[in-house]
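Summary for the steering committee. One of the milestones for this cycle was to obtain a three-dimensional model of the protein with pyridoxal-5'-phosphate bound, which we needed before selecting residues for the alanine scan. The sequence and ligand used are listed below.
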Amino acid sequence: MNKFSGYRCSICGTEYLPGQVTYTCPKDGGNLDVVLDYETIKKKFQPEDITSRTESSLWRYLPLLPVNEPAGDSTPLHASGWTPVFALPRLAEKLHLKHLWLKDESRNPTASFKDRASAVVVTRAGEIKSEVVVTASTGNAGAALAGMAAAVGQKAVIFAPKSAPQAKVAQLLVFGAKVILVNGTYDDAFDLTVKASDEFGWYCRNTGYNPFTLEGKKTAAFEIWEWWIEAHRDWHKKDSALDNHSPLTIIVSVGDGNIISGIHKGFKDLFALGWIPNLPRIIGVQAEGSAAIANAFHAKTEKIKPVSAATIADSISVDLPRDGVRAVRAAAQTDGTYITVKDEDIIKAIAELGTMGVFAEPAGAAAYAGLVKGASLGVVGSDDPVLVMNTGSGLKDVRAALQAVQSAPVIEPTLEAVKKIL
Ligand SMILES: *Cc1c(COP(=O)(O)O)cnc(C)c1O
Ligand SMILES: [Zn+2]
């Protein structure tokens, strides 16, 4: 049985059957939404059928996913998702916020949010029996694809810009992927990957281009939904005066726009099933030097104009975002917004998150930098409950991390020397 009924173009609305298309809309290149049969799901499942499951990975949400669970039960594919949420009380106080949490996606198997997408795409690749999976990547999507592919013994080819941080390239190589470094930008690598997958018949995971990346990424929304039911209950217990508080605000960094669109899709699924009464507010954060989606949002258009991207946050450095239209809608349709941040604010955010025991790569810390700016501008109110996503681990880019802190002193191994520097 097909686990989904087809695809719908996010631009022209044309619907396609599952076997009819693979990537984007043949008419206008629009991103395709996977269409689920909500009526059937609703008849078969209640929210409790999911929230009572013991599975602690994204496969917990199997009834809402367009693939079947991969075979075997102890691979990194089965360890993707179900990431922890931490309270950040000291940072909340600093920002004059009452309630602040962070969902730490660096705990995924290859240390970024991208594992959610890759776990689902590799599963799909198995179902359609493709021999080789390929992706363009600034590093994380590739590491996630290479890691998941290695786990199931599938061949992977990764195209990354030659400027990708060393730790990410090391991950790709250690996972045994065929790694090709492109003398160009992420966007150059993206276009080359599409051409290569057409030419060689490889299954292309490119972010946004492949409709299944969004389906993997939406599982973060399902986790937030489950977490919020609990957190919200505790919150009300402590302060019963809080009856008409604002909805949850989710803040996430944005490059191609696929994560923010995925989170939006997850909540739209829950809403369509009648499992939530309204959607949370979704705020996207971009680096000032890579702000094509934020620019479009603030110009009130869905026409995304490419930029010439330059930012320390390599994972969100994108000239032409490949999921821009849906990313604009994620904020526009949830009363959210877009915030842009400077590289120096991103570096500062790495250090601030560090004080709470969270180690974020620049793109992950960008979301927190956006919150700092949003709180100071009043875009985020002091009563608003806020959840910030950390999308990737600081270990991915130690060069950037070292810019956020003072270097450590080197001393002679004597107590006197210790006293001198204390
Ligand atoms: C890919 C990535 C993002 C941005 O996701 P998009 O889908 O490109 O918007 C943010 N942070 C990290 C760490 C990433 O790897
Ligand atoms: Zn279309």
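Key point for the committee: The first strand starts at residue 6 and ends at 9.
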